[in-house]
Write the structure tokens for this entry.
Amino acid sequence: MITLARRPVRIRILCEIMATKPPTTYWDYIRVEDLLNLQGGLDKDETTLEDEELVFITVHQVFELWFKLVRHDMLAARDLFVLPKVSEQDLSRVVARLRRITTIFKIGAHHFELVETIGTREYLAFRNKLMPASGFQSAQMRQIEVLFGLNDDERVALGSPGSHIAALKNADGSPSSALKRLRETQADGPSLRDAVRSWLERTPIDGVRHGDSGASKISEDFLDDFLASQRNEVDKARKRAREVAPESDHKRIDNLYDREIASTEEFLRGTDVKDDPQRARARVAMLFIETYRELPLLAWPREVLASLIEVEQAFLIYRQRHARMVERVIGRRVGTGGSSGVDYLDKTAIEYRIFRDLWTIRTLLLRNEAAPSLKGAAFYSFSAGD
Ligand code: HEM
């Protein structure tokens, strides 16, 4: 048997530390006592709370913890995208992070059921205590939106523009610690949306890398072929629609399908984003990845696109679910934060879209047989990748 004195130095030190340090306990590690002392509200005293107030405070705190995890995973995903070269392995890590965020939003949406167990009159018993506090002052929610890529000019104003910043100021007008955190997030590097765009911009189209000679021409050719196939498909649908419709309706039908063709071309050629060539190129990349998603080297990129849609969908449903809970508990009255209440919340659930272009691509995709045949397929096989 090896005596303590004969063990290698490092093991000996470890044994000595373990001998002096008390064994880890669950309550110390999780900080349970600290956690359980945080639900006392403004008076820091649970005995002063109204009947249902403990539920209200606890659920909000749980949400803020979920928001913290969302921020953590979103930053990790963003940081992987900003690398000059994003490997397949990195993409799988990004997908894992995004899928966890999706899970958090789904779980969060369920938590609103718990808030619905608070009756309207029970909530009204302590609602006045909150005024003018509101979830509108959740800086973490704003940090998440900024990390996602929501710009200030895309926000639904609660009163005047910039109200989300004003709400984070102290009563004397000085910036709160929450506002400082938000400012730090705004200053810290690209949003997930911008990082994804710069990654997408580099996607090789028809086997030719962005920046290689002839890359723009190849990309144009791909678009020309795709648009021709799309026109063909739309015309087939138009023909079917006209066959079953009365003649008086043909003009309306033609207008609809003409519009579909025109808006597809406008979107893919980037006519609406002329001052943002990166965004235009990213659209082509999304279309390419989605169209040839079965190719081995497009397997992870396509999962990334799928997980971006999933996370945004979960976020939108979360917003919707909050609005329905609010309608159920307080009806359509004015919010404690001063908004129109449910109307304001519904607007955010409809208008806030981060990956708008990715959603639009869904409108343009073609069935497999109708898609233009791929050039440079060998580039996307496993052996060809570098
Ligand atoms: C009875 C419960 C609740 C009611 C009646 C309620 C009501 C409202 C209302 C009316 C607003 C709009 C801003 C305002 O005028 O105040 C709002 C915003 C917000 N609430 Fe709630 N809420 C409740 C529970 C929760 C919970 C549990 C959370 C979880 C974190 C939450 C998070 C938020 C957030 C983040 C916003 C800002 C939304 C945005 O500006 O996009 N709320 N809430």
Q: What stands out?
A: Residues 59-60, 63, 115, 123, 134-136, 138, 141, 322, 326, 329-330, 335-339, 341, 344-345, 348 surround protoporphyrin IX containing FE (CB under 6 Å).
